[in-house]
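Fresh eyes needed here. Kindly weigh in on this sequence plus structure tokens:
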Amino acid sequence: MEHPQSQELLSMHANLCQAIADPTRIALLYELGDGPKHVSQLLETLDLPQATVSRHLKVLRERSLVKTQRDGPFVYYELADRRILDALNIMRAIHTDILSRHHQLIQSTEE
């Protein structure tokens, strides 16, 4: 895989990573993986205040991770690219492996 060379590409990459570096935004992305939802549905599912959900959806929208569609009085949010879930799942698997190695290290020092 090629490594991005320009500072602009590195900055764009960091900007995207910052968007998913928050537990609430990760939860929103996984929730939207089930299909488009309006804010009220997200509020109910995630049990978060409306202001919190709206603020995080704004970040995800600004970073082009979610898109919106109006249907009457409702604005529906959906994933702009489902591959973001693949990326999140890969990071989750890496984290699981790290925890497993730490657990093995602790066990080996206790023996």
